[in-house]
């Protein structure tokens, strides 16, 4: 990609509602509410802007349609983002992408931009080659595509006029989220591994000020005879810095960069330990993208809770831990 990017019906109820609607129609007493439920979902048309650009970022479920205006060789992208505790799913309803016109459509598990992926290729559960699914022709992909996190991408080049596709976007609950892109530049978020041997990252596509509210990373259990067996207590070590350099296998990295892949970002700070008291110190990341990465060996149930807010360089207290070239101020 060369450009920068900045509800489905309840299927379980559909049969009962359709049966009810048939009976109502038979008596010419049609209920408006039932008709509203049975009415086809509205379609959002994806159109090139006045500059011919075609990068679309969508945060809602629904049906999206694209029809090529013709004579365009732009690579377009439908970037979909749900809430952090949801999966994204795609299901094609119509498909017409001519192979002979050099048309191509790719479904990508995650986001891709300028050759970089989120989640990073090193930390994703699916090999990179299996995260791409490419199609052309007039036969729509027969299966739904379920993303591994809250973001997914449909990337396409459709030169043939009148050709295109229609796709249904759905969001599915994810009870143990790992990798996620956060939609808002301010908030509080808890990143956990749920005891798994897995590396999890949250990405915030803004320069951010990060403050650690609580951490339990590589927590050592305290053994005390007075504690009930069902209650685990952990030693409050406080925050320990540079855990990766010490050779520890469980730690948190606060990173920054100008691309999507956390593996290509620079570490502003890394830490581990147990601390239930909010830190008064902030880590300022003056980069286009900020990431918090939790590295877990599977030996501990790790978690870290952060407060994040937009980095404001005009504040007197602003002292960035990391500055990326694109955010360097020029006189």
Automatic annotation (TrEMBL):
GO cellular component, one term: extracellular space
Keywords of the record: Disulfide bond, Glycoprotein, Secreted, Signal
Main location as per UniProt: secreted
Span of domain Corticotropin-releasing factor binding protein N-terminal: 53-169
Pfam families with a match to the protein in the record: CRF-BP_C, CRF-BP_N
A single MF term (Gene Ontology): corticotropin-releasing hormone binding
Function: Binds CRF and inactivates it. May prevent inappropriate pituitary-adrenal stimulation in pregnancy.
Record-given protein name: Corticotropin-releasing factor-binding protein
